[in-house]
Amino acid sequence: MNRLSRLTLVFSITFAVLIISPAFLNKQFGPYPLMKTGDVIDLFTPLILIPLYWILFQVSREKTPGPGETIVFLR
Length: 75
Known about the structure:
Elements: H1 3-24, H2 37-57, H3 67-74
Helix pairs in contact: 1-2
């Protein structure tokens, strides 16, 4: 199994867990009773997925992304 396949598998599992789990976590979050545990997971979703997107974007060692591609990715 090559690196791209492993990264795609890790990304897809992480994406599925982070998108589905907030719906099932309905307990109140301790420090802030108006928030649910699923809301906290929802806040961390972009912090976890954006670096994974970046790793997938730069997986090819032969050709690094140019400045134009990087700007489009960051937008």
